[in-house]
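Internal tracking record. Fields below are filled automatically when a chain is submitted to the structure queue. Please do not edit lines marked as system-generated. If the sequence contains nonstandard residues, flag them in the REMARKS field before resubmitting.
Queue: standard
Priority: normal
Entity type: single polypeptide chain
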Amino acid sequence: MLAGSALLAAATVVTGGASQALAATGPVQVPTPTPTPRPPVGPADGSPLPGVARSRHAVGDPRGSDVVARFGRAREARFGTMFKQLTGFAPDDDLLVGLSERMVEARGAEDDIRPDGLDNPDMPAGFIYLGQFIDHDMTRDPTPLADQRADPRGLTNFDSPRFDLGSVYGGGPAANPELYDPQRPGYLLLRQNANGLEDLPRGANGSAFVGDPRNDENLIIAQMQMAFIKLHNHFMDTEKNFTRARQQTRWHYQWVIVNDFLPHVVGRQLLDEMIFALGRRTRARTLFYRPGNPLRPMMPIEYSVAAYRWGHSGIRAEYEMHDTPLSPNPAVLPIFSTETGPNPRDLRGSRPLFTDATVDWNYFFDIPGVRPPDDRNMARLIDTQVARPLHDLPDSVVAHTPGAIIALAQRNLLRGKRLGLPSGQDVAAAMRTRVPTMPAPLTNDQLGLADPRWGGKAPLWFYCLREAELGGGRRLGPVGGRIVAEVILGLMQIDLGSYWNTPAGFTPVGGPSFRMGDLIRLAGAPVVVPAS
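SYSTEM-GENERATED OUTPUT FOLLOWS
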Protein backbone atom coordinates (compact mmCIF):
# COMPACT_ATOMS: atom_id res chain seq x y z
CA MET A 1 0.00 0.00 0.00
CA LEU A 2 2.90 2.36 0.77
CA ALA A 3 5.36 1.50 -1.92
CA GLY A 4 3.75 -1.06 -4.16
CA SER A 5 3.56 -4.82 -4.10
CA ALA A 6 7.19 -5.29 -3.08
CA LEU A 7 6.54 -3.58 0.23
CA LEU A 8 3.50 -5.76 0.79
CA ALA A 9 5.76 -8.76 0.50
CA ALA A 10 8.11 -7.34 3.12
CA ALA A 11 5.63 -6.25 5.80
CA THR A 12 2.16 -7.08 7.06
CA VAL A 13 -0.52 -4.55 6.17
CA VAL A 14 -3.29 -4.31 8.76
CA THR A 15 -6.75 -3.31 7.57
CA GLY A 16 -10.09 -3.12 9.30
CA GLY A 17 -12.11 -5.14 6.82
CA ALA A 18 -14.04 -8.26 7.58
CA SER A 19 -12.68 -8.82 11.08
CA GLN A 20 -14.85 -5.99 12.41
CA ALA A 21 -17.66 -6.05 9.87
CA LEU A 22 -21.17 -5.11 10.88
CA ALA A 23 -24.13 -7.23 9.89
CA ALA A 24 -25.33 -6.35 6.40
CA THR A 25 -29.03 -6.19 5.79
CA GLY A 26 -31.10 -5.54 2.69
CA PRO A 27 -30.24 -4.46 -0.82
CA VAL A 28 -28.18 -1.39 -1.64
CA GLN A 29 -30.32 1.73 -1.31
CA VAL A 30 -29.21 5.22 -2.24
CA PRO A 31 -31.40 8.21 -1.46
CA THR A 32 -32.20 10.69 -4.18
CA PRO A 33 -32.37 14.00 -2.32
CA THR A 34 -33.76 17.06 -4.02
CA PRO A 35 -30.77 18.78 -5.66
CA THR A 36 -29.82 22.16 -4.27
CA PRO A 37 -27.91 24.66 -6.40
CA ARG A 38 -24.26 24.17 -5.43
CA PRO A 39 -21.11 24.69 -7.47
CA PRO A 40 -19.01 21.62 -8.22
CA VAL A 41 -16.18 21.14 -5.74
CA GLY A 42 -13.53 20.92 -8.43
CA PRO A 43 -13.23 21.64 -12.14
CA ALA A 44 -13.63 18.66 -14.42
CA ASP A 45 -10.70 19.79 -16.56
CA GLY A 46 -8.54 21.03 -13.68
CA SER A 47 -8.85 24.67 -14.68
CA PRO A 48 -9.76 27.44 -12.22
CA LEU A 49 -13.48 27.38 -11.54
CA PRO A 50 -15.36 30.69 -11.23
CA GLY A 51 -17.68 30.72 -8.27
CA VAL A 52 -15.69 28.44 -5.94
CA ALA A 53 -13.69 30.08 -3.18
CA ARG A 54 -10.29 28.44 -2.62
CA SER A 55 -9.34 29.38 0.92
CA ARG A 56 -6.19 28.20 2.68
CA HIS A 57 -5.82 27.16 6.29
CA ALA A 58 -4.79 30.02 8.62
CA VAL A 59 -4.11 32.32 5.68
CA GLY A 60 -7.39 33.72 4.40
CA ASP A 61 -9.94 35.37 6.68
CA PRO A 62 -13.10 33.24 6.85
CA ARG A 63 -16.14 35.08 5.59
CA GLY A 64 -17.81 36.97 8.40
CA SER A 65 -15.06 36.59 11.00
CA ASP A 66 -14.99 40.41 11.28
CA VAL A 67 -18.66 40.66 12.26
CA VAL A 68 -17.84 41.63 15.86
CA ALA A 69 -15.38 44.35 14.87
CA ARG A 70 -17.84 45.78 12.33
CA PHE A 71 -21.21 45.43 14.02
CA GLY A 72 -20.55 45.25 17.76
CA ARG A 73 -19.92 42.55 20.29
CA ALA A 74 -23.57 41.61 20.69
CA ARG A 75 -23.95 40.65 17.04
CA GLU A 76 -24.07 36.94 16.18
CA ALA A 77 -24.11 35.61 12.64
CA ARG A 78 -21.72 33.11 11.10
CA PHE A 79 -19.25 34.28 13.76
CA GLY A 80 -19.68 35.99 17.12
CA THR A 81 -18.00 36.32 20.49
CA MET A 82 -18.27 34.31 23.70
CA PHE A 83 -17.46 37.23 25.99
CA LYS A 84 -19.67 40.04 24.80
CA GLN A 85 -18.98 42.23 27.81
CA LEU A 86 -15.25 42.40 27.08
CA THR A 87 -13.57 44.92 24.80
CA GLY A 88 -11.07 44.18 22.07
CA PHE A 89 -7.37 44.36 22.93
CA ALA A 90 -5.49 46.60 20.51
CA PRO A 91 -1.76 46.90 21.28
CA ASP A 92 0.56 48.67 18.85
CA ASP A 93 1.29 46.68 15.70
CA ASP A 94 5.03 46.89 16.30
CA LEU A 95 4.59 45.08 19.62
CA LEU A 96 2.73 42.27 17.87
CA VAL A 97 5.29 42.05 15.07
CA GLY A 98 8.14 41.96 17.59
CA LEU A 99 6.38 39.26 19.61
CA SER A 100 5.84 37.17 16.47
CA GLU A 101 9.59 37.22 15.78
CA ARG A 102 10.18 35.65 19.19
CA MET A 103 7.69 32.88 18.45
CA VAL A 104 9.90 30.87 16.09
CA GLU A 105 11.72 27.63 16.80
CA ALA A 106 15.48 27.93 16.55
CA ARG A 107 15.90 24.72 14.59
CA GLY A 108 14.92 24.06 11.01
CA ALA A 109 13.83 20.91 9.20
CA GLU A 110 17.40 19.68 8.85
CA ASP A 111 17.65 19.46 12.67
CA ASP A 112 14.17 18.08 13.29
CA ILE A 113 15.29 14.51 13.93
CA ARG A 114 17.54 15.56 16.81
CA PRO A 115 15.92 15.27 20.28
CA ASP A 116 15.64 18.63 22.02
CA GLY A 117 13.14 17.89 24.81
CA LEU A 118 10.35 19.84 23.08
CA ASP A 119 8.38 16.92 21.63
CA ASN A 120 5.06 16.15 23.32
CA PRO A 121 5.29 12.57 24.66
CA ASP A 122 1.51 12.45 25.19
CA MET A 123 0.42 13.45 21.68
CA PRO A 124 1.24 11.57 18.47
CA ALA A 125 1.53 14.01 15.59
CA GLY A 126 -1.61 12.72 13.89
CA PHE A 127 -3.71 14.69 16.36
CA ILE A 128 -2.42 17.95 14.89
CA TYR A 129 -3.81 16.95 11.50
CA LEU A 130 -6.98 15.48 12.96
CA GLY A 131 -7.44 18.87 14.61
CA GLN A 132 -6.98 20.56 11.24
CA PHE A 133 -9.50 18.17 9.68
CA ILE A 134 -12.01 18.94 12.46
CA ASP A 135 -11.49 22.68 12.01
CA HIS A 136 -12.20 22.42 8.29
CA ASP A 137 -15.37 20.46 9.03
CA MET A 138 -16.56 23.11 11.50
CA THR A 139 -15.69 26.18 9.43
CA ARG A 140 -16.60 24.88 5.97
CA ASP A 141 -18.48 27.51 3.97
CA PRO A 142 -20.49 25.90 1.15
CA THR A 143 -22.39 29.11 0.39
CA PRO A 144 -22.30 29.77 -3.39
CA LEU A 145 -20.00 32.63 -4.34
CA ALA A 146 -22.86 34.79 -5.62
CA ASP A 147 -24.53 34.58 -2.21
CA GLN A 148 -21.22 35.23 -0.47
CA ARG A 149 -20.80 38.41 -2.48
CA ALA A 150 -24.34 39.48 -1.65
CA ASP A 151 -23.65 38.84 2.05
CA PRO A 152 -19.88 39.28 2.56
CA ARG A 153 -20.20 39.55 6.34
CA GLY A 154 -21.99 36.19 6.65
CA LEU A 155 -24.96 37.82 8.38
CA THR A 156 -27.73 35.71 6.84
CA ASN A 157 -26.28 33.23 4.31
CA PHE A 158 -24.25 30.66 6.19
CA ASP A 159 -24.26 27.06 7.39
CA SER A 160 -23.83 26.59 11.13
CA PRO A 161 -20.84 24.60 12.36
CA ARG A 162 -21.51 20.89 12.81
CA PHE A 163 -19.45 17.72 12.91
CA ASP A 164 -21.18 16.29 9.86
CA LEU A 165 -18.19 15.56 7.59
CA GLY A 166 -19.41 18.06 5.03
CA SER A 167 -15.82 18.26 3.83
CA VAL A 168 -16.16 14.59 2.84
CA TYR A 169 -19.76 14.36 1.64
CA GLY A 170 -20.20 17.79 0.08
CA GLY A 171 -23.88 18.32 -0.65
CA GLY A 172 -24.52 14.59 -1.14
CA PRO A 173 -24.68 12.36 -4.23
CA ALA A 174 -27.24 14.48 -6.07
CA ALA A 175 -25.67 17.89 -5.40
CA ASN A 176 -22.01 16.87 -5.75
CA PRO A 177 -21.88 13.69 -7.87
CA GLU A 178 -18.19 14.33 -8.66
CA LEU A 179 -17.35 13.08 -5.14
CA TYR A 180 -19.08 9.74 -5.66
CA ASP A 181 -18.22 6.55 -7.53
CA PRO A 182 -20.43 6.37 -10.64
CA GLN A 183 -19.95 2.60 -10.81
CA ARG A 184 -20.98 1.97 -7.20
CA PRO A 185 -23.96 4.07 -6.09
CA GLY A 186 -23.54 5.50 -2.61
CA TYR A 187 -19.77 4.93 -2.45
CA LEU A 188 -17.30 7.82 -2.28
CA LEU A 189 -14.72 8.00 -5.02
CA LEU A 190 -10.98 7.25 -4.91
CA ARG A 191 -8.85 6.83 -8.02
CA GLN A 192 -5.44 5.55 -9.02
CA ASN A 193 -3.27 8.52 -9.95
CA ALA A 194 -0.55 8.89 -12.58
CA ASN A 195 2.01 7.63 -10.02
CA GLY A 196 0.10 4.36 -9.67
CA LEU A 197 -1.11 5.21 -6.15
CA GLU A 198 -4.60 5.34 -4.69
CA ASP A 199 -5.49 9.01 -4.37
CA LEU A 200 -8.30 11.51 -4.21
CA PRO A 201 -9.92 12.18 -7.58
CA ARG A 202 -8.07 15.11 -9.16
CA GLY A 203 -8.40 17.48 -12.07
CA ALA A 204 -5.74 18.09 -14.71
CA ASN A 205 -4.03 20.77 -12.59
CA GLY A 206 -3.63 18.34 -9.66
CA SER A 207 -6.27 19.86 -7.38
CA ALA A 208 -8.54 17.32 -5.72
CA PHE A 209 -12.30 17.02 -5.90
CA VAL A 210 -13.14 17.42 -2.20
CA GLY A 211 -15.97 18.91 -0.19
CA ASP A 212 -13.54 21.50 1.21
CA PRO A 213 -10.44 22.52 -0.79
CA ARG A 214 -8.48 23.03 2.44
CA ASN A 215 -8.42 19.23 2.83
CA ASP A 216 -6.03 19.14 -0.10
CA GLU A 217 -3.63 21.80 1.17
CA ASN A 218 -1.04 19.26 2.35
CA LEU A 219 -0.52 15.58 1.65
CA ILE A 220 -1.12 14.49 5.25
CA ILE A 221 -4.57 16.07 5.47
CA ALA A 222 -5.36 14.78 1.96
CA GLN A 223 -4.66 11.23 3.13
CA MET A 224 -6.76 11.78 6.25
CA GLN A 225 -9.58 12.73 3.88
CA MET A 226 -8.94 9.42 2.13
CA ALA A 227 -9.19 7.56 5.45
CA PHE A 228 -12.68 8.96 6.06
CA ILE A 229 -13.69 8.12 2.51
CA LYS A 230 -12.54 4.56 3.17
CA LEU A 231 -14.46 4.48 6.43
CA HIS A 232 -17.66 5.48 4.66
CA ASN A 233 -17.07 2.87 1.97
CA HIS A 234 -16.51 0.24 4.67
CA PHE A 235 -19.90 1.08 6.14
CA MET A 236 -21.44 0.96 2.66
CA ASP A 237 -20.10 -2.60 2.43
CA THR A 238 -21.75 -3.53 5.72
CA GLU A 239 -24.88 -1.38 5.81
CA LYS A 240 -25.82 -1.47 2.09
CA ASN A 241 -27.52 1.90 2.57
CA PHE A 242 -26.03 5.36 1.98
CA THR A 243 -27.93 7.15 4.75
CA ARG A 244 -27.01 4.57 7.39
CA ALA A 245 -23.38 4.39 6.20
CA ARG A 246 -23.06 8.18 6.41
CA GLN A 247 -24.63 8.21 9.86
CA GLN A 248 -22.28 5.49 11.12
CA THR A 249 -19.27 7.32 9.69
CA ARG A 250 -20.32 10.61 11.28
CA TRP A 251 -21.03 9.06 14.66
CA HIS A 252 -17.71 7.17 14.81
CA TYR A 253 -15.94 10.41 13.88
CA GLN A 254 -17.82 12.34 16.57
CA TRP A 255 -17.02 9.63 19.11
CA VAL A 256 -13.31 10.03 18.33
CA ILE A 257 -13.54 13.82 18.76
CA VAL A 258 -15.03 13.49 22.26
CA ASN A 259 -13.18 10.42 23.50
CA ASP A 260 -9.74 10.68 21.90
CA PHE A 261 -9.06 14.09 20.38
CA LEU A 262 -10.33 16.26 23.24
CA PRO A 263 -8.65 14.21 26.00
CA HIS A 264 -5.32 14.72 24.23
CA VAL A 265 -5.91 18.47 23.77
CA VAL A 266 -7.68 19.66 26.93
CA GLY A 267 -7.20 16.74 29.34
CA ARG A 268 -9.51 14.11 30.78
CA GLN A 269 -10.09 15.99 34.04
CA LEU A 270 -11.80 18.96 32.38
CA LEU A 271 -13.98 16.67 30.27
CA ASP A 272 -15.04 14.68 33.33
CA GLU A 273 -16.10 17.94 34.98
CA MET A 274 -18.14 19.03 31.96
CA ILE A 275 -19.71 15.85 30.50
CA PHE A 276 -22.58 13.96 32.11
CA ALA A 277 -25.21 11.43 31.07
CA LEU A 278 -28.90 12.24 30.85
CA GLY A 279 -30.61 8.94 30.24
CA ARG A 280 -29.12 7.52 27.05
CA ARG A 281 -28.09 10.97 25.87
CA THR A 282 -24.85 12.79 26.66
CA ARG A 283 -24.79 16.38 27.89
CA ALA A 284 -22.19 19.03 28.72
CA ARG A 285 -22.11 21.83 31.29
CA THR A 286 -21.23 24.82 29.11
CA LEU A 287 -21.01 28.14 30.93
CA PHE A 288 -19.52 30.45 28.32
CA TYR A 289 -20.50 29.15 24.89
CA ARG A 290 -24.19 30.01 24.81
CA PRO A 291 -25.12 30.99 21.25
CA GLY A 292 -28.14 33.25 21.06
CA ASN A 293 -29.80 31.06 18.45
CA PRO A 294 -29.14 27.37 19.17
CA LEU A 295 -30.72 26.46 15.83
CA ARG A 296 -28.04 28.49 14.00
CA PRO A 297 -25.12 28.61 16.43
CA MET A 298 -22.28 31.01 15.72
CA MET A 299 -18.55 30.27 15.78
CA PRO A 300 -16.87 32.38 18.51
CA ILE A 301 -13.75 34.29 17.48
CA GLU A 302 -12.13 33.49 20.84
CA TYR A 303 -12.13 29.90 19.64
CA SER A 304 -11.43 30.20 15.92
CA VAL A 305 -8.88 33.03 16.02
CA ALA A 306 -7.13 32.21 19.29
CA ALA A 307 -7.60 29.07 21.39
CA TYR A 308 -8.03 26.59 18.54
CA ARG A 309 -4.86 27.82 16.89
CA TRP A 310 -2.95 25.85 19.51
CA GLY A 311 -2.13 23.38 16.75
CA HIS A 312 0.21 25.80 15.02
CA SER A 313 2.73 25.28 17.81
CA GLY A 314 2.48 21.48 17.49
CA ILE A 315 3.49 21.27 13.82
CA ARG A 316 6.85 19.67 13.08
CA ALA A 317 9.23 20.95 10.45
CA GLU A 318 9.30 17.48 8.86
CA TYR A 319 7.68 14.05 9.23
CA GLU A 320 8.67 10.44 8.71
CA MET A 321 5.89 9.20 6.45
CA HIS A 322 6.78 5.51 6.36
CA ASP A 323 9.74 3.18 6.50
CA THR A 324 10.49 0.04 4.56
CA PRO A 325 13.38 -2.44 4.58
CA LEU A 326 13.48 -2.05 0.80
CA SER A 327 14.58 1.59 1.03
CA PRO A 328 18.05 2.66 2.20
CA ASN A 329 16.50 5.62 4.10
CA PRO A 330 13.10 6.23 5.67
CA ALA A 331 10.77 8.57 3.79
CA VAL A 332 11.24 11.82 5.73
CA LEU A 333 9.68 14.91 4.16
CA PRO A 334 9.66 18.58 5.24
CA ILE A 335 6.40 20.48 5.28
CA PHE A 336 7.99 22.98 2.86
CA SER A 337 11.23 22.41 0.98
CA THR A 338 13.39 25.00 -0.76
CA GLU A 339 13.02 23.14 -4.07
CA THR A 340 11.50 24.99 -6.97
CA GLY A 341 9.33 23.51 -9.66
CA PRO A 342 5.89 21.91 -9.73
CA ASN A 343 6.69 18.83 -7.61
CA PRO A 344 9.03 19.63 -4.72
CA ARG A 345 9.87 16.75 -2.41
CA ASP A 346 7.78 18.01 0.48
CA LEU A 347 4.25 17.78 1.85
CA ARG A 348 2.57 20.58 -0.07
CA GLY A 349 -0.75 19.49 -1.48
CA SER A 350 -2.97 20.23 -4.49
CA ARG A 351 -1.05 17.63 -6.52
CA PRO A 352 -1.05 13.85 -6.93
CA LEU A 353 0.22 11.74 -4.08
CA PHE A 354 3.72 10.31 -4.69
CA THR A 355 5.43 7.29 -3.16
CA ASP A 356 7.67 9.02 -0.60
CA ALA A 357 4.66 10.98 0.74
CA THR A 358 2.41 7.95 1.28
CA VAL A 359 1.46 7.69 4.93
CA ASP A 360 1.81 4.77 7.29
CA TRP A 361 -0.64 5.83 10.01
CA ASN A 362 1.35 3.85 12.57
CA TYR A 363 3.78 6.79 12.44
CA PHE A 364 1.01 9.22 13.41
CA PHE A 365 -1.36 7.42 15.83
CA ASP A 366 -1.38 4.59 18.35
CA ILE A 367 -2.85 1.66 16.43
CA PRO A 368 -4.42 -1.05 18.64
CA GLY A 369 -2.75 -4.41 18.26
CA VAL A 370 0.11 -3.01 16.18
CA ARG A 371 3.62 -2.62 17.53
CA PRO A 372 4.64 1.06 17.37
CA PRO A 373 7.60 2.09 15.23
CA ASP A 374 10.79 3.14 16.98
CA ASP A 375 10.45 6.72 15.78
CA ARG A 376 6.77 7.66 15.68
CA ASN A 377 6.20 11.32 14.88
CA MET A 378 5.16 13.17 18.02
CA ALA A 379 3.62 16.62 18.09
CA ARG A 380 5.72 19.47 19.39
CA LEU A 381 4.83 20.77 22.84
CA ILE A 382 2.04 23.35 23.02
CA ASP A 383 4.13 26.43 23.65
CA THR A 384 4.91 29.85 22.22
CA GLN A 385 7.17 28.50 19.48
CA VAL A 386 6.06 27.59 15.95
CA ALA A 387 8.09 25.60 13.44
CA ARG A 388 10.63 27.70 11.56
CA PRO A 389 9.18 26.94 8.09
CA LEU A 390 5.96 28.65 9.25
CA HIS A 391 7.89 31.90 9.59
CA ASP A 392 8.49 32.00 5.84
CA LEU A 393 5.38 30.59 4.21
CA PRO A 394 6.04 29.71 0.57
CA ASP A 395 4.46 31.49 -2.37
CA SER A 396 2.14 28.52 -2.89
CA VAL A 397 0.56 29.32 0.50
CA VAL A 398 0.82 33.14 0.60
CA ALA A 399 1.42 35.11 -2.59
CA HIS A 400 4.69 37.00 -2.14
CA THR A 401 3.33 40.34 -3.26
CA PRO A 402 4.83 43.61 -1.93
CA GLY A 403 3.93 44.01 1.73
CA ALA A 404 2.65 40.44 2.11
CA ILE A 405 2.91 39.01 5.62
CA ILE A 406 4.39 35.55 5.25
CA ALA A 407 5.07 34.75 8.93
CA LEU A 408 2.22 32.69 10.39
CA ALA A 409 2.60 33.98 13.97
CA GLN A 410 2.51 37.57 12.76
CA ARG A 411 -0.62 36.90 10.73
CA ASN A 412 -2.33 35.32 13.74
CA LEU A 413 -1.49 38.15 16.13
CA LEU A 414 -2.48 40.95 13.76
CA ARG A 415 -5.68 39.14 12.79
CA GLY A 416 -6.65 38.81 16.47
CA LYS A 417 -6.29 42.55 16.96
CA ARG A 418 -8.20 43.42 13.81
CA LEU A 419 -11.10 41.12 14.64
CA GLY A 420 -11.52 42.49 18.16
CA LEU A 421 -10.26 39.67 20.36
CA PRO A 422 -10.17 40.50 24.09
CA SER A 423 -6.94 40.06 26.01
CA GLY A 424 -6.03 36.77 27.63
CA GLN A 425 -6.19 38.26 31.12
CA ASP A 426 -9.66 39.70 30.54
CA VAL A 427 -10.95 36.32 29.38
CA ALA A 428 -9.29 34.54 32.31
CA ALA A 429 -10.85 36.98 34.79
CA ALA A 430 -14.30 36.61 33.19
CA MET A 431 -14.04 32.84 33.41
CA ARG A 432 -13.02 32.97 37.04
CA THR A 433 -16.21 34.81 37.98
CA ARG A 434 -18.19 31.72 36.93
CA VAL A 435 -15.63 29.05 37.82
CA PRO A 436 -13.95 30.10 41.09
CA THR A 437 -11.60 27.11 40.99
CA MET A 438 -9.86 28.51 37.91
CA PRO A 439 -6.47 30.10 38.65
CA ALA A 440 -5.98 33.84 38.75
CA PRO A 441 -5.05 35.44 35.42
CA LEU A 442 -1.36 35.20 34.55
CA THR A 443 0.57 38.43 34.76
CA ASN A 444 2.67 39.78 31.93
CA ASP A 445 5.76 39.09 34.03
CA GLN A 446 4.75 35.43 34.11
CA LEU A 447 4.06 35.53 30.38
CA GLY A 448 7.44 37.13 29.63
CA LEU A 449 6.05 40.38 28.18
CA ALA A 450 8.20 43.06 29.78
CA ASP A 451 7.40 46.09 27.61
CA PRO A 452 5.11 48.44 29.59
CA ARG A 453 3.26 49.33 26.40
CA TRP A 454 1.40 46.02 26.71
CA GLY A 455 -0.47 47.64 29.59
CA GLY A 456 -0.37 44.46 31.64
CA LYS A 457 -2.30 42.48 29.04
CA ALA A 458 -1.49 39.92 26.35
CA PRO A 459 -3.01 38.74 23.06
CA LEU A 460 -5.41 35.85 23.67
CA TRP A 461 -3.68 33.46 21.25
CA PHE A 462 -0.29 34.04 22.88
CA TYR A 463 -1.85 33.78 26.35
CA CYS A 464 -3.37 30.36 25.57
CA LEU A 465 -0.05 29.04 24.27
CA ARG A 466 1.99 30.47 27.14
CA GLU A 467 -0.31 29.13 29.87
CA ALA A 468 -0.04 25.70 28.24
CA GLU A 469 3.74 26.06 28.13
CA LEU A 470 3.91 27.02 31.79
CA GLY A 471 1.86 23.91 32.60
CA GLY A 472 4.30 21.62 30.78
CA GLY A 473 3.02 21.98 27.22
CA ARG A 474 1.36 18.56 26.95
CA ARG A 475 -2.18 19.96 26.75
CA LEU A 476 -3.95 23.29 26.81
CA GLY A 477 -4.20 25.23 30.04
CA PRO A 478 -7.31 26.41 31.93
CA VAL A 479 -8.34 29.26 29.59
CA GLY A 480 -7.44 27.72 26.22
CA GLY A 481 -8.72 24.29 27.22
CA ARG A 482 -12.02 25.64 28.49
CA ILE A 483 -12.69 27.62 25.31
CA VAL A 484 -11.96 24.62 23.08
CA ALA A 485 -13.97 22.17 25.19
CA GLU A 486 -16.95 24.52 25.56
CA VAL A 487 -17.29 25.10 21.82
CA ILE A 488 -16.79 21.52 20.65
CA LEU A 489 -18.99 19.99 23.34
CA GLY A 490 -21.54 22.78 22.98
CA LEU A 491 -21.88 22.16 19.25
CA MET A 492 -22.13 18.41 19.79
CA GLN A 493 -24.94 19.02 22.26
CA ILE A 494 -26.87 21.43 20.01
CA ASP A 495 -26.71 19.23 16.92
CA LEU A 496 -29.80 17.02 16.94
CA GLY A 497 -28.07 14.74 14.42
CA SER A 498 -25.07 13.97 16.63
CA TYR A 499 -24.69 10.68 18.45
CA TRP A 500 -25.24 12.58 21.70
CA ASN A 501 -28.88 13.05 20.77
CA THR A 502 -29.89 9.65 19.45
CA PRO A 503 -32.64 8.29 21.74
CA ALA A 504 -31.31 4.74 21.48
CA GLY A 505 -27.78 5.71 22.43
CA PHE A 506 -24.68 4.82 20.42
CA THR A 507 -21.76 2.47 20.92
CA PRO A 508 -19.07 2.32 18.23
CA VAL A 509 -17.79 -0.82 16.57
CA GLY A 510 -15.70 -2.73 19.09
CA GLY A 511 -17.11 -0.93 22.13
CA PRO A 512 -16.57 2.27 24.14
CA SER A 513 -12.77 2.09 23.93
CA PHE A 514 -12.93 3.04 20.22
CA ARG A 515 -10.24 5.60 19.35
CA MET A 516 -8.65 7.12 16.22
CA GLY A 517 -6.39 4.12 15.80
CA ASP A 518 -9.46 1.90 15.72
CA LEU A 519 -11.02 4.18 13.10
CA ILE A 520 -7.90 3.87 10.95
CA ARG A 521 -8.02 0.07 11.15
CA LEU A 522 -11.77 -0.12 10.57
CA ALA A 523 -11.38 2.04 7.47
CA GLY A 524 -8.60 -0.15 6.11
CA ALA A 525 -6.27 2.85 5.81
CA PRO A 526 -2.54 2.04 5.47
CA VAL A 527 -0.88 0.66 8.60
CA VAL A 528 2.30 -1.38 8.39
CA VAL A 529 3.50 -3.66 11.17
CA PRO A 530 7.19 -2.86 11.82
CA ALA A 531 9.53 -5.64 10.76
CA SER A 532 10.91 -7.59 13.71
